[in-house]
Amino acid sequence: MKNFKKSIGLILIASMMLSVLAGCSGKKENAETEVSKQSEESKTVEITDLDGNKVEVKDTKDINKYIITAYKGAMGSSILLGQLDKVQGMSNTKNFPWIRHAFPKVKDIKDYGSFDEVNTEEVLKDNPDVVISPKSAAKANEQMKSLGVPVLIDGIDVEDSKDVFKQTYDEIDLVAKLTGSEDTAKKYYEWADETFKMVEDRVKDIKDEDKVKVLPIRSDILQVFGNNCIWGYVVEMAGGVNLSGESTKDTGKFFADVDAEQIVKWNPDIMFQINFNGALDEKSSENYNNWAKDERFSNMKALKSGDLYLIPTGIDYWSAAIEAPICVLWMADMMYPEKFEDIDVKKYTEDFYKEFLDYEMNDSDWEVMAQQYNGAKNNGSSK
Predict the structure, then answer these.
(1) What is the pLDDT of residues 14-63, one digit of tens each?
(2) Most confident stretch, 112-121, 211-220, 228-237
């Protein structure tokens, strides 16, 4: 009997222990489920866009696809930071032929339209993690936000015209925070600072009377850039004198329309021009020859000597943003070759694209990137 009671007692104790263990197990499972739910819910971060808006987006490791609705700094920043595979859509890149040459998949990336012409229905249907859109597209931005699409604003003009690189660096920082590529951005800034410093050290002692007089022109010979934007300021950084530096002062614009008389009066030693069309065609290839034959400009030094150089176009126009350090070096070498005899600018450029884009350049790249007008001098980068 004692043995029987003892056995019953043991069975009851065992049952109680099993119940306790089962209860503990249930609590553990519930706790793990709760933590998991909390973890899922917390996979967002807050990013302040360039217009000061605080936007909640997915955590950087979960950002897999985003749309860029204008070729502002976000596109170039994405390429620089190695995030091109995450770009689900962007505006047309036909004016940037080297990007399409070096990275053919760019041509297949969907174009949702740009600025206020964005097809918001298509954007919503394709469900991007975030859209990067310029402030000037206010109508489209509000529409996308109302549909629940996270929108980061870019394309903000700098308030201080002297800080011409702020807009570019802000764009890089925005994409870096979104994609978790801050280390690459930091590495780029260090490279840019070193390049600018190297050029500055070599040209800083040039006397004012010995400085090369430069005219940076836009789409036409009668459109010139001031020093309140990168396109004009790079001339000064390279040690030259931007003859049109004050032409945009207090105008709120980056370029000025001038007449032929003013161009002749300036009489530049060298002219640098951005090719906003990206590639030369049969007609535009003759621009230099046509201007050189124009009687209005018959006594201009730059046109008589052939010193009109098209600025190369890579990720962006070299003088515009990310490649500005290369542009400053290239311009300085064109103006003062004796001070850069130990620097192979083409190799320096190729090293940059290899380092940051993991891309090996060859002659075909230079043919696309560094086109030059018929009749003008070689721009130092052409084949």
Answers:
(1) 444 444 434 444 443 443 434 334 445 558 999 999 999 999 999 999 99
(2) 211-220
Which is it for strands 270-274 and 213-217: parallel, antiparallel or unpaired?
Answer: parallel
Which residues are CB-contacts of 228 (< 8 A; sequence separation ≥ 6)?
A: 161, 162, 164, 248, 249, 254
Encode the chain in three state secondary structure: CHHHHHHHHHHHHHHHHHHHHHHHHHHHHHHHHHHHHHHHHCCEEEEECCCCCEEEEECHHHCCCEEECCCCHHHHHHHHCCCHHHEEECCCCCCCHHHHHHCHHHHHCECCCCHHHCCHHHHHHHCCCEEEEECCCHHHHHHHHHCCCCEEEECCCCCCCCCCCHHHHHHHHHHHHHHCCHHHHHHHHHHHHHHHHHHHHHHCCCCHHHCCEEEEECCCCCEEECCCCHHHHHHHHCCCEECCCCCCCCCCCCEEECCHHHHHHHCCCEEEEECCCCCCCCCHHHHHHHHHHCHHHCCCHHHHHCCEEEECECCCECCCCCCHHHHHHHHHHHHCHHHHCCCCHHHHHHHHHHHHHCCCCCHHHHHHHCCCCCCCCCCCCCC
Mean pLDDT of 99-104: 95
- What's the rounded Cα separation, in Å, for the pair 238 and 301? 20
CA 145 to the chain's CA centroid: 24
Under 8 Å between Cβ of 35 and 159: no
Q: Tell me whether residue 280 is exposed, middle or buried, using C-beta atoms within 10 angstroms of its C-beta: 0 to 12, 13 to 18, 19 or more.
A: middle
Percent of the chain with pLDDT over 70: 87
Write out the two tokens for 127.
């469900």
The residue assigned the tokens 């660096």 is 169
Tell me if 129 sits within 8 A of 63, measured CB to CB. Answer: yes
Give the residue from 106, 132, 83 showing the smallest Cα distance to 357.
83
Strands 130-134 and 151-154: parallel
Q: Between vectors from CA 210 to CA 317 and to CA 381, what angle results, nearest 5°? A: 30
The model's confidence at residue 165, banded by pLDDT at 50, 70 and 90, is confident
CA distance between the termini of the chain: 107
Overall residue count recorded for the chain in this entry: 383
